[in-house]
């Protein structure tokens, strides 16, 4: 399917500077890697799909019921067990939770990133911190919240700390990656002028980092908003997620779920607009 | 001023990049190092302020050996050595004046570096330096909006802000158009003649070297093959510097 | 001269003022949000309590060894479901993205419809997906699979669409100018060029879905998430610790494999 050699040659303007041509050997390696990965994925999928449908399962009935519920959700949203104001408050809680965890996470992660970028830190520190963060990242947010609800008691403290954990681990990696992309020449230049490390960080690294710092932090905010909802539902940590969980698995009221989903979608739309604006600002 | 004795360097422990390099640089003169790509020009320059650690030799800057300094002493010594790069290495998101002011941060405290605290005298000097290189009205422009020649001149102003005794220039004009080349080289020449700063420049354009240098050092395959006044740089000497037979390996290195 | 210095001072003061303003606003927002949520800042200083508790209680003990079989089995199922959901979603996404990318789309309205659809799928919370599906499909792997599938479909359609659009209009037009048909352009010009980018998106999503599968399992009562909840709620912490450990090992290995593939592709 994928044959890089057979591709039609595309007339483009020749870029200035030396042209990079990948030796055939490497192109082959890519092709083989992609093909092998696709084969493995296809095999796993084909083997798994049939085993997923349990015996005596009425797929047709399930599908009908599913479309019915989707219809109820989107076409007949209305409230029964709670009020709109309550839901608005719950949505606000989830947004605050996402905001607070992103703020704390981005501040802490910035320092971890400084200590784990190849541009500034010794290799053992880079490897140490990045492996530690990989382990933290590997544990799903909801497990962190569950664990901390036992230690701190169920509530805001557990939710904030739990979500922050994952945020720090994620942001440390992406910030450090952004710093790694900085040309080593820049830092060398500052060192050649005799600048101290603190001055190099403030005067050289931060100015370059700002655009990617903002966009990654914003992406993390979107993730944290989704996590705040999930955690509210799965760990009973409150917010719109908890309401969603109650309506769908306690009252089985999909009309109400519809209202909440619309509210969440409205906020997501706001975020999308902000992210669009942010991108056009940082990309100038 | 600056004397380099028996400098030796190998990056991989096998191939010698510098072999027994000795020369000295006099104040108030433009000294140009010429040689083919991969000859070791950059390695020499970066050894002087110890951006790369050489293997053996002696680098006497104001009678102290740069190689013997500890980290703090090295940092202090670097404050008085200006450096200019082929690709300018400015902090592009910041303005020209901020970049120039970075030149005096080496001698200031951590706090001053973090909060960009400069004395009025320093601010005045930074602006004067920008005016000196003809960029007075660009002081508040972000450097990423400047042209290549302008960026290089900001780079020079930044180096001058260090009040350097010597300025090291690694291919300062390799990315510039002919007109900017003349401007930049004129400024560098002026620094040597009027301010008494030693200027050490890596070049691979022989005609420019002839026009601007007082003293020329020719490098081929990590060895000094010419070390004399610029007016004695004959065509035979140039052919000798640029000959390729010494060691075919490694002398074909792409510059960027 | 003096007025020049004043101008520089004004420049730095303005920068400093802006920075201070941002810090003050964020600080106030922090305090406001903490009060609004009932969050106490000092609990950040007690983070180590959680870790200590984790280390004390989650150490798998003799009793928890008996759970290995069940955990490994559920872990493997969860992994399979995550991979299958990602792969299926990737296939549908690729089709949607090709039809929807602005550079290739047959009509711009189609592009907008697909864009809106993918945005809808992405932004419906996974909790809602899990709950609606649970109601109709009941407690089994299919529910988790579908929840992951819909989320991933939303993400990948958008990601693939952007990858294709980055490929550029001129290149597509240049290909069409050579007389290639629509399908030829896609199969021989486009896909080989973007295959590496698509692959890295798929690998990223698999990684993500293995993690999210735990959450979905928790909500729908299937897979590794379900047994974690079971052990945790019944205070069998040793066994729950074993689950956490196994999830760490799985996610880290998936990440390592995907890094390896990424390096082979670069
Ligand atoms: N970072 C490095 N690692 C290994 N070898 C290097 C490195 N930098 C330079 N070299 C080698 O050292 C020699 C001299 O390089 P360089 O000083 O950059 O030459 P020039 O600046 O004259 O072009 C070359 O043969 C090059 O291959
Ligand atoms: Mg060089």
Question: Any key phrases for this structure?
Answer:
heterotrimer; A: 284 residues; mainly alpha; MetI-like fold; B: 256 residues; alpha/beta; Rossmann fold; 2 domains; 6-stranded mixed sheet; 4-stranded antiparallel sheet; 9 helices; binds adenosine-5'-diphosphate; binds magnesium ion
Structure, briefly:
The complex is a heterotrimer of chains A (284), B (256) and C (266). Chain A has ten helices and no strands. Chain A has helices spanning 24-52, 59-75, 84-115, 123-138, 141-152, 156-181, 184-192, 197-234, 239-249, 254-282.
Describe, in plain words, how this protein is organized in 3D.
The complex is a heterotrimer of chains A (284), B (256) and C (266). Chain A has a domain at 92-282: MetI-like (MetI-like fold, Orthogonal Bundle). Chain A has ten helices and no strands. Chain A has helices spanning 24-52, 59-75, 84-115, 123-138, 141-152, 156-181, 184-192, 197-234, 239-249, 254-282. Mean pLDDT of chain A is 87; it is low at 1-20. Chain B is of the alpha/beta class and 256 residues long. Chain B has two domains: 1-80 and 166-175 and 195-256, P-loop containing nucleotide triphosphate hydrolases (Rossmann fold, 3-Layer(aba) Sandwich); 88-163, no CATH class. Chain B has helices at 41-48, 71-78, 96-102, 110-115, 120-132, 148-161, 178-195, 206-212, 235-242, and strands at residues 2-9, 18-25, 30-34, 56-61, 64-65, 81-84, 166-170, 198-203, 215-220, 223-229. In chain B, the strands form two sheets. In chain B, strands 6-7-8-3-9-10 form a six-stranded mixed sheet, with helices on both faces. Chain B has a four-stranded antiparallel sheet with strand order 2-1-4-5, covered by helices on one side. Residues 246-256 of chain B have low confidence and may be disordered. Chain C starts with a helix and ends with a helix. The mean pLDDT of chain C is 89. Classes of the chains: A mainly alpha (284), B alpha/beta (256), C mainly alpha (266). Chains in contact: A-B, A-C, B-C. At the A-C interface, α1, α2, α3, α4 and α5 of A face α1, α2, α4, α5 and α6 of C. The structure holds adenosine-5'-diphosphate and magnesium ion (MG).
């Amino acid at each position: 399917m994928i044959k890089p050699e057979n591709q039609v040659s595309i007339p483009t303007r020749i870029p200035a500077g030396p042209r990079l041509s990948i030796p055939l050997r490497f192109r082959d390696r890519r092709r083989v890697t992609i093909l092998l990965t696709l084969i493995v994925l296809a095999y796993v999928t084909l083997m798994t799909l049939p085993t997923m449908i349990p015996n005596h399962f009425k797929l047709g009935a399930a599908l009908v019921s599913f479309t019915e519920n989707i219809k109820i959700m989107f076409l007949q949203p209305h409230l029964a067990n709670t009020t709109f104001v309550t839901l608005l408050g719950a949505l606000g809680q989830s947004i605050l939770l996402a905001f607070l965890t992103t703020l704390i996470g981005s501040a802490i992660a910035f320092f971890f990133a400084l200590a784990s970028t190849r541009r500034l830190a010794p290799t053992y520190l880079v490897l140490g911190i990045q492996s530690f963060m990989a382990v933290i990242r590997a544990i799903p947010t909801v497990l962190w919240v569950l664990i901390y609800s036992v230690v701190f008691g169920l509530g805001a403290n557990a939710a904030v700390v739990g979500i922050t954990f994952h945020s720090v681990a994620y942001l440390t990696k992406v910030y450090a990656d952004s710093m790694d992309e900085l040309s080593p020449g820049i830092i060398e230049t500052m060192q050649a002028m005799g600048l101290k490390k603190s001055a190099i960080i403030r005067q050289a690294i931060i100015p370059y980092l700002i655009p990617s710092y903002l966009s990654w932090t914003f992406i993390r905010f979107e993730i944290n908003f989704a996590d705040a909802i999930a955690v509210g539902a799965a760990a009973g940590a409150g917010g719109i997620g908890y309401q969603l969980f109650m309506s769908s698995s306690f009252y089985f009221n999909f009309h109400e779920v519809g209202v909440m989903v619309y509210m969440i979608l409205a906020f997501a739309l706001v975020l999308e607009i902000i992210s669009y604006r942010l991108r056009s600002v940082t990309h100038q | 001023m600056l004397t380099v004795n028996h400098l030796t360097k190998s990056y991989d422990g096998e191939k010698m990049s510098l072999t027994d390099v000795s020369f000295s640089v006099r104040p108030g003169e433009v000294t140009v190092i010429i040689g083919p790509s991969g000859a070791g020009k950059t390695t020499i320059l970066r050894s002087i302020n110890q951006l790369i650690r050489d293997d053996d030799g002696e680098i006497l800057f104001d009678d102290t050996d740069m190689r013997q300094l500890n980290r703090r002493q090295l940092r202090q010594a670097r404050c008085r050595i200006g450096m200019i790069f082929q690709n300018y290495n400015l902090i592009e998101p910041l303005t020209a004046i901020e970049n120039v002011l970075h030149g005096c941060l080496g001698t200031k405290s951590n706090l001053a570096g973090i909060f960009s605290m400069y004395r009025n005298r320093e601010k005045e000097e930074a602006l004067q330096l920008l005016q000196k290189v003809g960029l007075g009205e660009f002081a508040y422009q972000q450097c990423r909006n400047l042209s290549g020649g302008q960026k290089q001149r900001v780079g020079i102003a930044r180096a001058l802000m260090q009040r350097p005794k010597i300025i090291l220039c690694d291919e300062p004009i390799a990315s510039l158009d002919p007109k900017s080349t003349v401007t930049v080289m004129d400024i560098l020449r002026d620094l040597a003649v009027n301010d008494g700063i030693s200027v050490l420049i890596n070049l691979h354009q022989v005609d420019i070297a002839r026009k601007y240098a007082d003293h020329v050092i020719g490098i081929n395959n990590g060895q000094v093959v010419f070390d004399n006044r610029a007016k004695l740089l004959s065509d035979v000497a140039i052919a000798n510097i640029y000959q390729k037979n010494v060691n075919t390996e490694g002398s074909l290195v792409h510059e960027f | 001269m003096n007025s020049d210095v004043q101008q520089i001072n004004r420049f730095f003061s303005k920068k400093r003022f802006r920075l201070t303003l941002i810090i003050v606003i964020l600080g106030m927002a922090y305090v406001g949000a903490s009060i609004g949520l009932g969050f106490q800042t000092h609990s950040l200083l007690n983070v180590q309590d959680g870790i200590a508790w984790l280390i004390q209680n989650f150490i798998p003990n003799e009793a928890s060894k008996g759970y290995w079989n069940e955990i490994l089995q559920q872990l493997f199922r969860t992994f399979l479901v995550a991979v299958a959901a990602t792969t299926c979603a990737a296939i549908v996404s690729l089709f949607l993205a090709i039809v929807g990318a602005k550079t290739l789309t047959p009509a711009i309205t189609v592009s907008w419809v697909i864009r809106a659809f993918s945005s809808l799928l992405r932004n419906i919370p996974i909790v809602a997906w899990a709950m609606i599906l649970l109601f109709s499909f009941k407690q089994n792997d299919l529910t988790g699979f579908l929840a992951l599938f819909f989320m991933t479909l939303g993400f990948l359609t958008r990601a693939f669409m952007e990858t294709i659009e980055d490929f550029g209009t001129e290149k597509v037009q240049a290909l069409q100018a050579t007389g290639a048909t629509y399908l030829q352009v896609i199969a021989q010009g486009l896909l080989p060029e973007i295959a590496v980018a698509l692959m890295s998106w798929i690998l990223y999503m698999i990684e993500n879905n293995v993690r999210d599968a735990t959450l979905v399992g928790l909500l729908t009562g299937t897979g590794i998430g379900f047994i974690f909840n079971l052990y945790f709620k019944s205070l069998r912490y040793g066994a729950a610790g074993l689950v956490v450990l196994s999830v760490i090992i799985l996610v880290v290995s998936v990440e390592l494999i995907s890094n390896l593939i990424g390096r082979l592709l670069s």
